[in-house]
Model the fold of this input.
Amino acid sequence: MIVTVIFGSDGGATKGVASKISKKCQGRSVDIKTATKADFENSDLLILGSPTYGDGTLQTDWEENIDKLRTANLKGRKVALFGTGDQESYPTSFVDAIGILYDEVTDLGAVVVGFTDTAGYDYVGSTAERDGQFVGLALDLDTQSGLTDKRVTAWLSKLL
Done:
């Protein structure tokens, strides 16, 4: 299975998660700043990751390069999402970025896989929550960093 992980990251936390995910599934990790249309299209599983900015927006590199995603042919393609956020400091916008990416890829006809349970998190609201589940893997590296490896492993076991 060919896996491509495309991420945006400022401080390096989301990049670190992207690297961990790509290593565990023998995939490759690509920064959204250097990603090409082919990076989005040439894989069996496309994994997209982004941190959420405080008020619930996409990371800047994603915002500046969103047209790369929008011009890709994702119709019928398997896409999984992961996001990093801080549920205690930003309880009303926790991992909103993956909710934004979810809307983008479903508009392009992608098949989103890897929904996860909201149990074990303490937040007020998230655009990443749909029908009682997160649209992807939600990670809080600020207050629950000790759960990251376990959550990544469990999530990937459902995807691969």
